[in-house]
Amino acid sequence: MLLPRVGVFLLVGLCLVSQASAEDLLSPAKREIAMKLVSSAENSSLDWRKQYAYIEDIDDDRGYTAGLIGFTSANGDMLDVVERYTAQRAANPLAGYLPALKTLAEEESSAHTGLDPDFVSAWKQAANDPAFRAAHDNILTEQYLEPAVKQAKEDGLNTLGQFIYYDALVMHGPGNQREAFGGIRAAARAVAKTPAQGGGEKAWLNAFLDARVKIMREEKAHEETSRVELEQRRFLKEDNYSLSPPLRWRTNDEDFVIER
Question: Where is the signal peptide (predicted)?
């Protein structure tokens, strides 16, 4: 039996809505792309799964930086990962460092007090544990990926805009300070309208990236802006709002490609 024409249109519309929602940055395929893009900038590699074990002090006044997106000992998200891990597996190589991590997070201290000399090796040991990786993934999603997608959708942005917000949150952190994600977005709003406000998506994202680059050039260890200028800005110039492969970009003096 043939569906009435209105029913056909409704069915097609529902399919399109379902497809669109499946292709946001939270979908498995787009999340995989996002993880590779961030890893290329943070670790000069597309193999993001190896980065669970990454840890070093990059001399940016945030203490130790570690993991997939650079959780830090001074800003509290490293503490969140270790607390979540310990809640799932009480006996783990990092549990004994919780008091020190809490103190450093409360003081926003870049010191290694209570962590050296064995914290780095303990982190790398924990990276072999699936429970640690799960804690890692959950904090990343809850504190960075989901908030980025939510704010981007409220601003009327597609998948590329969602990623641009996510990458900014990863580097600059949440909050409304001038140098944080909220401050960067506020600076962009002073010169452009979001698509939800009637502005153009390209104009808005360029304004956001301009504001972010200004902050990056002022920040210790973040002066290198290729992840914006030669990656995100390139996708924007190509009108690739769906962040669909093939993707080609350059960051940290290296060329990368995602073919499919």
Answer: 1-22
